[in-house]
Amino acid sequence: MENNETVEVNNDEILCLFIDTKKYQKTIGVCFYNYLKYEFLMTEFIDNGYFTALESLFIQKRPCKCFFNSTTDLVDDEKVLNLFKMCNIEPILTDKKKYDITNLKEELKSIIPQNDDIRNYDKHLELENASKCLMVLINYLKFKEDEDINYQCSINIYNMNLYMRLDKAAITALNILPNKKNTHSYNNNTSLLKFLDKCNTSIGSKKLVSWLTQPLTNALEINQRLNIVETFINEDDIRNSVFCNYLKRIPELDKLNHYLKEINKNNDIR
């Protein structure tokens, strides 16, 4: 499939995946890391021969690079590489030895807050393939990027079922995102993103892309979101007050949090 949709990758997020094939069943472990939030997200799922669940996950999270293992199946490896290309993700083939989790618990103790307990992550470690990915990312951040992640990271489990799973074919068929090849075409100008994006801030535009590529499945959460949007559309005074008094003054909180932590680390060094 040709990669025309402008799904911008999230440069603040990287990913590692491990594909384990046994008796024709593919179990995929995944771990994300968000640089701004100092957060690891783990998940594990069974996928089909077309890797449709993995494709949907790429679209949901939009990481900029991905570490992956060879499956020893040339056809499967080619399919995964095509997914990377289609989603604009930089692929990094990773030696299987780097997925060794022998020392994972010791590594976890060094990255979680000092007042946290390693026993709180027993459920996370049950995700064996995702744990392998977590180990790869920890070592990469510490030794390749020299990223200081000691005692300040959170580790959570990512629930893919909270969002509708969209693949590239659905994105194209539903005209959700603009087409980067035909920037002046009728379809491009009437894409759902172009139609809805009346945002006045970059934070709002990024959030809208997230909403469109991660549609909620919970009816209660959907209605809560719609009620908030409806209030801002219908209540001019509330909308103008929030925009003028708050939104224009609020930076991207994740970036601000990251910046403050960097300042704190520099002060500690001094």
From TrEMBL:
Residues 169-260 form the DNA mismatch repair protein MutS core domain. It comes from the Eukaryota. GO terms for biological process: mismatch repair; mitotic recombination. Pfam families: MutS_III (PF05192). GO terms for molecular function: ATP binding; ATP-dependent DNA damage sensor activity; mismatched DNA binding. GO terms for cellular component: MutSalpha complex. Transmembrane segments: none annotated. This is DNA mismatch repair protein MSH2, putative.
